[in-house]
Amino acid sequence: MKIKEIREMAGEALKARENELVEQIFRGRFKKSLGEVDAVKLIRVQKKELARIKTVARERELKVNV
User: Fold this and answer.
1) What gap in Å lies between CA 61 and CA 66, rounded to an integer?
2) Residue 5 DSSP SS3
3) Concatenated DSSP letters for 3-62?
4) Per-residue confidence in pLDDT tens, the chain, 66 aa
5) 3-65 topology per CATH
6) What are the Cα distances from residue 65, in Å, to 15, 39, 60?
7) What is residue 64's DSSP assignment?
8) What's the rounded Cα separation, in Å, for the pair 34 and 58?
């Protein structure tokens, strides 16, 4: 997901996607430990998306507090 798409998401949708990604990363670690090669790339992509979401959430939090 691109940063532009993330910025357009509502607060609740953003939080829901964040929770979903945390769960997917958790499950991906199990797949990785079982030896699935595709899991490594998928985890990397999911972690980057999670970081983008957290960045946008933090930006919104700081704008409210200013």
Assistant:
1) 9
2) helix
3) HHHHHHS-HHHHHHHHHHHHHHHHHHHHHHHTT-HHHHHHHHHHHHHHHHHHHHHHHHHH
4) 889 999 999 999 999 999 999 999 999 999 999 998 888 999 999 999 999 999 999 999 998 775
5) Helix Hairpins (1.10.287)
6) 19, 39, 9
7) H
8) 35
* Amino acid 55: pLDDT: 95
Q: Dmax of the chain from CA atoms?
A: 47
Asked if residues 42 and 28 have their Cβ atoms less than 8 Å apart, the reply is yes
What is the pLDDT, as a whole number, of residue 64?
76
- Quickly tell me which residue has 């929770």 as its tokens: 19
Supply the DSSP symbol for 10: -
- Main-chain dihedrals φ then ψ at residue 36, nearest 5 degrees: -75, 120
Neighbours of 46 (CB within 10 A): 18
pLDDT in tens, 33-51: 999 888 899 999 999 999 9
